[in-house]
Amino acid sequence: MQITRSSTDTTRGPTSWFTGEVYLDAVAAAPPPSRVSANLVHFMPGARTHWHRHPLSQTVFVTEGVGLCQRRGGPVEAIRPGDRVLFEADEEHWHGAAPNRLMVHLAINEGDDEHDVVEWLEPVTDDEYGSARDL
């Protein structure tokens, strides 16, 4: 058995990436040649990412609460514990907590030498986020 003790503090998600209160815990940042990273992302009620895209896709696995996600031009979808969402390479999307529930997910990303792991875009508007009222 091998236990690796966490040596990183929980950090507040930057306002250039998120709307609302979000916290990040680094889970995995494997040394080269691995190109996989993982973060546990804690969204308080109503918090969400900005629109963004990943050149090599992103997988999120919901561990707690109720969340929302949307790809550009698609419907807002509810996500719950045990749900796994694959955002395809370069698919513009956002994800976050429902208005009245927190949501925690594990975000798994892959990088390479030619691209940043993520390209951040504009914030999700309240109207875009509010289109999920009936979920």
Q: How would you explain this protein's 3D organization?
A:
- The chain has one helix spanning 126-130; strands at residues 11-12, 18-19, 22-29, 36-43, 48-49, 52-53, 58-65, 67-71, 77-79, 84-87, 93-97, 103-110, 119-120.
- It has 135 residues and is mostly beta strands.
- It has a single domain (11-130), classed as Sandwich (Jelly Rolls), CATH 2.60.120.10.
- A hairpin with a 5-residue loop joins strand 8 (67-71) and strand 9.
- The protein starts with 10 loop residues before the first strand and ends in a 5-residue tail after the last helix.
- It comes from Auraticoccus monumenti.
- This is Cupin domain protein.
- InterPro entries: Cupin_2, HNL-like_cupin, RmlC-like_jellyroll, RmlC_Cupin_sf.
- Residues 40-98 form the Cupin type-2 domain.
How is this structure best summarized?
The chain has 135 residues and is mainly beta.
Give the overall form: globular
Give the CATH class. Answer: Mainly Beta
- How are strands sequenced across the largest beta sheet? 1-3-4-12-7-10
Largest sheet: 6 strands, antiparallel
Tally of extended strands?
13
Percent strand equals 35-45%
Helical segment tally?
A: 1
Q: Determine the CATH superfamily.
A: Jelly Rolls
How far apart the termini lie comes to: 43 Å
The radius of gyration is 15 Å
Key phrases:
single chain, 135 residues, mainly beta, Jelly Rolls, 6-stranded antiparallel sheet, 3-stranded antiparallel sheet, 1 helix, 13 strands, globular, HNL-like_cupin, Cupin domain protein, RmlC_Cupin_sf
SSE topology sketch:
Elements (H helix, E strand, L loop, with lengths): L10 E2 L5 E2 L2 E8 L6 E8 L4 E2 L2 E2 L4 E8 L1 E5 L5 E3 L4 E4 L5 E5 L5 E8 L8 E2 L5 H5 L5
Antiparallel strand pairs: 1-3, 2-5, 3-4, 4-12, 6-13, 7-10, 7-12, 8-9, 8-11
Pfam families: Cupin_2
Protein name: Cupin domain protein
